[in-house]
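note to self — DONT lose this again. spent like an hour looking for the file last time. sequence + predicted structure for the chain T wanted, 195 res
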Amino acid sequence: MTLLTTWPESGPDTVVRRTTDPVEIAAVLAPAGVRYEQWPLRAEVPEDADSETVFAGYRAEIDELTAAEGFATVDVVGLRPSEDLGQRLQAKAARKKFLSEHTHDDDDEVRFFVAGAGAFYLHIGSEVHAVLCEAGDLLGVPRGTKHWFDMGAAPSFSVIRFFHEEDGWIGNFTGSDIALSFPDFDELIAGRVAL
């Protein structure tokens, strides 16, 4: 179940909004140009599907979005819990990188969650919106929007990424440590259970 939590940028002591209603989530984010929608899950695409299976299962949606938005590159990436030390260290380094607030000058950050979950934090105006995304969620963060992403201590997700630029993901880090002030992915998951 997708969860949107909004706090003032000063910190998480006051919850401005907390909702699992997809219509409300889309309505709250739309004025900032953030795209939120849900695509139907495909039974023929298992959680551990390879890229070819993901592309085949979501071909109609990928083609429609790519044509409408002019994306140049589409790929599938994901992480799964692993016993391999090298893979765990790689996941830890990726998490640290994405946990830093950043923007993108030349591209939107558009992700569709095929499986698993992750949390996007959007620092818009004087608020921080945490969008806990799960399988079936598509989130599009407009270029220039301050944000960060948390995949949790034991990442488990698969996403389709859409890029306007051939170079893919290029982040401009703000240098702010604001991400340290808010509940992380694992805390959001734990808190969601209490809903």
